[in-house]
Amino acid sequence: MKKILFLIAALSIIAAGTALAADTVKIGLTAPITGSWAAEGQDMKQICELLADQVNADGGLLGKEVEVVVADDGGNEQTAALAAQRLATKGIVAVVGTYGSSVTEASQGIYNAAKIPQIANGSTAVRLTEKGLKYFFRTSPRDDEQGRVAAKTLMGMGYKKIAILHDNTTYAKGLAEETKALLDKEPVELVFFDALTPGEQDYTTILTTLKTKNAEVVFFTGYYPEAGLMLRQKKEMGFDVPFVGGDATNNPDLVKIAGKDAAEGFYFISPPVPQDLPSKEAKDFLAAYTKKYGAAPGSIWAVLSGDGFRVMVEAIKQTNSTDPNKIADYLHTGMKDFPGLTGTISFNEKGDRVGDVYRVYKVDAEGGFILQ
Amino acid sequence: MEQFFQQLTNGLAIGGIYALIALGYTLVYGVLKLINFAHGDLFTIGAFLGLSLLTAFSLTDKLGFAMGVGALVLMIVCLVGIIGILLDQAAYKPLRTSPRLSAVVSALGMSIVFSNAIMLVFGPNPQVYPHGILPTSVLHIFGLPFPVKRLLLLVTSVVLMAALYFFIQKTTIGAAIRAAAIDQDAARLMGINVNLVIMLIFFIGPALGGAAGVMVGLYYGQIKWTMGWLYGLKAFTAAILGGIGNIPGAMVGGLLLGVIESLGSAYISMAWKDAITFVVLILILIVRPTGLLGERVAEKI
What we know:
The structure holds 2 protein chains of 2 kinds. Chain A is α/β, with parallel strands linked by helices. Chain A folds into 2 domains: 25-141 and 277-354, Response regulator (Rossmann fold), CATH 3.40.50; 144-270, Response regulator (Rossmann fold, 3-Layer(aba) Sandwich), CATH 3.40.50. Chain A is built from 13 helices and 14 strands. In chain A, helix 2 packs parallel to helix 12 (300-319) and helix 5 packs across helix 6 (170-184). Chain A is elongated, with a radius of gyration of 22 Å. Chain B starts with a helix and ends in a 14-residue tail after the last helix. Chain B is mainly alpha-helical. In chain B, 75% of the residues lie in helices and 4% in strands. Chain B is globular, with a radius of gyration of 19 Å. Chain B has a domain at 20-226. Chain B is built from 12 helices and 4 strands. The model of chain B has no long low-confidence stretch (mean pLDDT 88).
């Protein structure tokens, strides 16, 4: 008798467990919750959780609640691969993320093999979508697009001696090479093309070299911590060459690190900052976000993770299924001008977002990012 | 030529920092033959505590620049020194008689504990020291621009290193430390309290590392919870370069490493900076396996 009771109890616990598990539609999020890009990652988590709450308040998805399963990729490749393997076993139907291109690259193959549609939100390296992965998408634009805008902006400034500096990451190097290839065709001189070591603090050696090469403008394709330090050190050296940054310098911490007077006059190329998003969806979302967390999200990359989440929810809703093939097919061909937070969203056959999103910004004396 | 001198001073400034941190590695290694891998994180702790104290007491507003920074460095030296002693008591002392590898693994573990604790307490974002504490004026020496704050950085690290050198070479306590470094048992027989010497070592080393942390914060402005790893690695390299266990060696190694890095990246390739540095390190170790100033000791690791 005891045995039977025990069996019944055990079975009912298992049954309750599976019932609970089937109760929600799980969407994964890999984001750099820790590591040097943690500021971005924590915004991504907050945004996706807010959006999931909104979906659940509107009645959920396929008659169930949506649950965001967060995994920390730490902003590095090894952690990302482990996080991907862990997430893939947790019954998620789609995954949002992640930020850095090299980090996304480490997880791409794992999700694709597990047939989990993935939608990256900050990874702009061209080759990510050139591999023909069926289940890979991104809401962020590509570096060749950014390279085109960068080359155009640099040419438009009228300087003849241009320096390009990257940091050897997949993303920054890709963007630097795209831009270099375009500038090589123009009547300008490329006086410098090299990489710094990210994570260090002393960039005076590089700045001194740039000065001796008589660069008239410097295009830095790396991330905001290094850009901020360089702006500060170049001001201290009394070296007043204009700096232009790529989209990874689009973060308010840049001004904090550099100081307002050193950051003033810095240009960067980026999709619009959250506050400049034009659509009604974006305004409503920013209002809700600010209400819940007390401040607007810091950068556009986190908002792009929100778009990834919304796109996946829409695809599941429209196909009325969580079948990865149906979701991928819908995203490739079915989704047309979906009203995203960062503008309308459609995807081409490679999984790249269609349409142009890049703008040029300049930092003003107060440290604000002003759309040019 | 102007570029050469510019790059030389760029290298010396960062080299001074490497040297200060390298002293912590070398002191501990000298006495215990232990590589204290948590030392880089003690440096980070110094930088973060420095920022907290600076903003909490608005030291430089109340005491003026020189006194404020002096008081700050003094507080950090004491605090990080005490953390160093606690570290030794908690993680290394119980392993004193175990095989040497156990203590090294314990050191690696403590490094992870410290860096993650910093992240949990201060948050994962880069933190920024208030702007405009150090003077921003620029001196012109032989027509070469030389920022005053860089001079301050270099002078401070040289003074701290010189003070340590005289302390170890000229005082009785210094003699006790040297004796314990040569042979702990013999030192004990001579009536030296070796435990006290070890405690002192774990105060001085981390204290210098903490001071370096504050200096980095004040000088570069931005501090990150991960920065101890890179600085620790570089300083460890510097200690090896100069001959680990040897105090003037750590100073020479640090300054030399900074200069090699700076000139290597200026004249050869920037992207290959670290590779160039390590090639130089390997070459030096092939010619002098004990490092530049290292003496030949029968049994090191």
